[in-house]
Design goal:
The complex is a heterodimer. Chain A is an alpha+beta fold. Helix content of chain A is 39%, strand content 25%. Chain A has a 3-stranded antiparallel β-sheet, with helices on one face. Chain B is built from 14 helices and 9 strands. The chains are: A alpha+beta, B alpha/beta.
């Protein structure tokens, strides 16, 4: 299921951003994801304040050379994947 | 010399072997370590700092029952200050609401609550303790605390008929993750294997159940399951490969490549009191012993899968084939696979009903002093 554009994603309980040897990582139960470039830009905005649409708009501006539709679909896929790993909650 | 290919990602901190439960499949060794020699707070704190410097991201606080340590809050604070993510694997028995709040305030990230069953009487039989009602209380308290929650059900022949009840319990809780882990046959589980090994039919039914549950609860609860490797075609990549991802520290400070490594004769283990974690990880004989491929025998040595499963589990090779360097006997290509097949055949006899009413003669794990 695609995340709702008007919902506010935020990191679920027990999921947090951290840093190890200059590498940003998303820590969660029994798992860690290395974050670089766009994945870090997305997760940093999963703060319960940005809507999914705002995250998309921000990244379309940051990566203005990329095809905007592609940026949108990549972000929606990534957010859905994090939700399925139970790293994100989506507030209304 | 084989160089350490990677840094460890997780540190398994066996803080104590003391435990109020006496589970018949406990992953602690048969020879439990006593309270008097346990590492002190300062030594553990140094170990956490050294682990973070080595690239470790997560600490698994386990035991025994890690909450049996009187300094547990200091240990959580120290690991968190070192930059580690903290998983606490607990029976929940020593918890009350104040202790839970203090743990969360100290920086606990994730609490994994172990269940022996969804039913009081099965749980009591497996753990030889009355603990189930307390676990249900802990689940209620967790609903109002900001901490990740995993429910861990250890499953086997005697409780595989209760999967639906276990899942319902998880769905009524605040857990975002459930582990259904079939018993692994080392130590106490190996001693009680005959009563624990599931039938082929039980295993097939359980896998169907997990797949349906994963589909239905996608996005709500992450469901993970571990199958008993006796029934597998190929062995598991035990610990992600020897000395590749994990490091376990025992209550007395010995550094082991896996929970059961002490069964392997001739291996000397370094102690964190004498050596830094980096020295042990990079250069100790015990961590080097089964790294890479030089130690492998045929059929592993020339097998296409040798970088996928690393030859399977060294402790299982020792326990079943009598040789820690042999191919894991659960592998269908292993020359010793017939031993595993004979064990499975006995477990699948029609004369050995899975949920027999007669209580088996369990070997319970004691509580060390």
């Amino acid at each position: 299921m695609t995340p709702d554009l008007n919902s506010h994603p935020r990191l679920a309980a027990g999921c947090r951003l951290s840093e190890n040897n200059q590498q940003r990582v998303l820590l969660m139960p029994e798992r860690a994801l290395r974050l670089n470039g766009p994945s870090l830009e997305i997760v940093e905005r999963c703060d319960g304040k940005h809507t999914v649409q705002q995250i998309i708009t921000d990244l379309q501006q940051l990566y203005s050379k990329a095809e905007p539709k592609k940026v949108e679909s990549d972000i929606l896929d990534y957010l859905a994947r994090l939700r399925d790993q139970r790293a994100l909650d989506f507030d209304g | 010399m084989t160089l350490a290919p990677t840094n460890p990602l997780a540190l398994i901190a066996e803080l104590t072997h003391r435990c109020p439960l006496h589970c018949v499949y406990c992953s602690n060794p048969l020879e439990l370590e006593s309270r008097s020699g346990e590492l002190d707070t300062l030594t553990w704190s140094r170990v956490f700092r050294e682990a973070a410097e080595l690239g470790v991201l997560q600490a698994d606080f386990t035991g025994g029952e890690p909450l049996a340590r009187a300094d547990i809050l200091d240990l959580v604070r120290a690991a968190r200050a070192a930059g580690l993510y903290i998983n606490l694997i607990t029976s929940g028995l020593p918890l009350d609401e104040a202790k839970l709040d203090a743990l969360v305030a100290a920086g606990l990230d994730h609490l994994q609550l172990s269940f022996q069953s969804a039913r009081e009487e099965t749980a009591a039989e497996i753990s030889n303790t009355k603990s189930h009602a307390q676990k249900l209380r802990v689940l209620e308290w967790l609903k109002s605390r900001r901490v990740a929650v995993t429910l861990n059900f250890v499953i086997h022949r005697r409780n595989l008929n209760q999967l639906a009840e276990m899942l319902a319990l998880a769905e009524s809780s605040s857990a975002t993750r459930v582990e259904f882990a079939h018993v692994q046959y080392y130590g106490w589980g190996f001693a009680n294997r005959e009563q624990l090994l599931p039938t082929r039919e039980q295993l097939a039914n359980s896998i169907d159940f997990f797949k349906r549950a994963q589909e239905r609860l996608s996005g709500k609860i992450r469901i993970e399951y571990v199958v008993p490797d006796y029934y597998a075609k190929y062995p598991k990549p035990c610990m992600g490969g020897w000395g590749r991802k994990l490091m376990l520290i025992t209550p007395l400070g010995e550094a082991l490549p896996c929970h059961a490594a002490r069964v392997i004769p001739g291996l000397q283990f370094e102690n964190v009191k004498d050596r830094s974690l980096r020295e042990i990880w990079e250069a100790s004989d015990s961590f080097q012993k089964f790294r890479g491929q030089a130690w492998m025998q045929e059929p592993c040595k020339s097998c296409d899968r040798r970088e996928l499963d690393f030859g399977g589990c060294r402790c299982q090779a020792l326990l079943l084939a009598g040789d820690a360097s042999a191919t894991d006997p659960v592998c269908s290509l292993a020359p010793t696979r017939a031993k595993v097949d004979a064990i499975l055949e006995a477990a699948n006899q029609p004369s050995a009903p899975a949920a027999s009413l007669t209580s088996p003669a369990w070997l319970y794990r004691p509580n060390p002093t």
